[in-house]
Amino acid sequence: MKPESWQLVFDADQISAAVERVSDELNKECSGDDWLVLAVMNGALVFTADLMRRLSFVHELDSVRVSRYHGETSGGELIWHASPVASLDGANILLVDDIFDEGHTLLALHQHMQASGAAQVRSVVLLDKQHDRKVAEFSPDYCGLRCADCYVFGYGMDYEDRWRHLPEIYALPEEA
């Protein structure tokens, strides 16, 4: 049972509309090439699954598992848990993540994909958190929704390692 004090940030319909809009953009811009959809686990699991069902271009799926939060509400050092199995050399990579907060994780992954020989790397995030602490000169290529600078969870994102299964996105009351 979820606490009633949580603040709804995005409902399931708003999320679905954002995923549809992003997939439409990707279908226009990525058609004609084969792509490696690379999900950043665990947070991007739900978003990637919903997004892939709407993609009409040829793609394969793989994942990378890195973390900065380690069950906390603020990020720390980037830890690599699992690398992609697919070859990155010459690949067109669509890097899919749940949220663009400060950008350290996505930037590090983007640089790693390029250093591994990817032909091109494009990044897709469901949420872009609005604040001025972002890494310089880097932003995702595609974004579903913009959100306030608060800790959000649900729709694949966790709060204390739980609540990823929620179809909506919430914030804690003091954060909303």
UniProtKB/TrEMBL annotation:
Catalytic activity, as annotated: GMP + diphosphate = guanine + 5-phospho-alpha-D-ribose 1-diphosphate; IMP + diphosphate = hypoxanthine + 5-phospho-alpha-D-ribose 1-diphosphate
Pfam families xref list: Pribosyltran
Domain of life: Bacteria
Keyword Transferase assigned: yes
Xref: SUPFAM superfamilies: PRTase-like
InterPro entries in alphabetical order: HGPRT, PRTase-like, PRTase_dom
A cellular component term, taken from the record's GO annotations: cytosol
A biological process from GO: GMP salvage
Gene Ontology molecular function terms on file: hypoxanthine phosphoribosyltransferase activity; magnesium ion binding
Domain Phosphoribosyltransferase stretches: 11-143
Keyword terms of this UniProt record: Glycosyltransferase, Transferase
Name this protein carries in UniProt: Hypoxanthine-guanine phosphoribosyltransferase
Organism: OM182 bacterium MED-G24
